[in-house]
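Standup notes
- HV: blocked on the assembly model, inputs below
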Amino acid sequence: PASNLGLEDIIRKALMGNLEE
Amino acid sequence: EITKAQRALMKVIVDAYNRHKIPQDVAKKLLQDQYSAEENFLLLTEMATSQVQVLVEFTKNIPGFLSLNHEDQIALLKGSAVEAMFLRSAQVFSQKMPNGHTEVLEERIRKSGISEEFMTPMFNFYKSIGELHMIEEEQALLTAITILTPDRPFVKDQQAVERLQEPMLEVLRKLCVLQHPQEPQYFARLLGRLTELRTLNHYHAEMLTSWRMN
């Protein structure tokens, strides 16, 4: 799930638009 | 007077601010009772992750943001994530919540292993935000302005960020004059909260280290 990714990983993933954990 | 273009800009920001919120099911978990310190910790981690995702979705709607250099987009989001998170949770705390909810939330945070010396400045900030009684437009614009802070670490093209932040500041200034005619210092007070937010940034880094240790 996203919650154990680092802050920057979550930001990059969300910026690219794929949000699934 | 707020121009037509400024009104349109404000509407885009406020609509995005309302559209991108923490999903109801995640937020509801905060109010379920009886969690251990560990479960509180995991819950707050999940909340923080969700808030960062919501922050990015909101930020994508800020006119001009996606045309910034990609690495600068990352630098701005990374640099403002903690501040935007506290700004948003401060607004949640200051909303009129059904009685008891604020106490449950406060209790939860106090029992999650966060050290006292971090707790006090955080709740003081929530109080000072609450006292401002900001309207939604002010909250949304202040969040956008926080994200578009040109001097975040690793931002290369600061002028490009300033060109995006300037119109936001201008609209917010006019809005404050219209909304708070009897308080000429209101705009300055809002910007003062951004300085307070920066100190929370420092506390937050320390808090994470102490959290990891215990």
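- HV (later): unblocked. Residues 4 and 10 of chain A are 9 Å apart (CA to CA). Chain A has a mean pLDDT of 73.
- Next: hand off to the docking folks.
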